[in-house]
Specification:
The chain is an alpha+beta fold. It has one domain (37-258). Helices cover 43% and strands 28% of the residues. The protein contains four helices and eleven strands, in the order H-E-E-E-H-E-E-E-E-H-H-E-E-E-E. The strands form two sheets. Strands 1, 2, 3, 8, 9, 10 and 11 form a seven-stranded mixed sheet that branches. A hairpin with a 2-residue loop joins strand 6 (141-154) and strand 7 (157-169).
Amino acid sequence: MDIKEGKKGQLTIFIILGLVILVVGSIFYLYFKPNLEQPKQISSNVEYFINDCLKKTLESGIKEISLNGGEYLPQDSTYFSEREIKYYLKNGVTKDFPNLETEISKYVAAQMSSCLTLSTIPNVEMRLSEIKVDTKISSTRVIADLYLPVIISQDQTSKEISNFQAVVSSRLGEISGVVQEFITLQAANPDYMLVSKLMQLTQNHRLKFKITDRNEGITIYSFTDKKVLLGTKKLIFQFAVKYNWQERLEEKVITPIENGE
């Protein structure tokens, strides 16, 4: 009887020890689980924040570059409606069409810092001086890939993430193609305003055009996208042409010409 009771006592002790270990292990896991997942959560939050910032900056860049005539900081330009607008044709001389992908990349790289510094995230280092942006434009969207080293530190460990991406639906690629086609036609006929050709081109691509004729032979052309893609705003692409019309040098600004909705 004593032997049997001793074995039962030992078994009871082992069961109690097992339960204690299970309870302590469960408490340990529940207590430390948030800390184990915290770096992963911080990383996810940082990626979301930077990608969101990138998309907003890209949308702004598409709008501003289009209104400027395709350049971030237009050089050969005329001042109109509170901004510099690039010349595409000036006194019969055709100007180089800007590389829109490069210009948008410049804009995003320059403006991302302003967006990112609006909020500070503890234990996160963003190496803003190392920002690089690569933009690709298709007929229906604009994609920006951002390289930005971000160091996330937590509990004496660190993690680095550096690649981010934003995609914006936009017909910028198609519209810029129409603009280049029109400029090619205009360059072959530098002394004429090709309104009929302009109407044909814009109708074929579901665009609205507006011609604002200023003094000294300067004309502002605006192309507005009538085919608004889901979740986007109307895109307006404008540029300047300076005709060599000596007889118009003393004329005042006339009423803008535009096609229907």
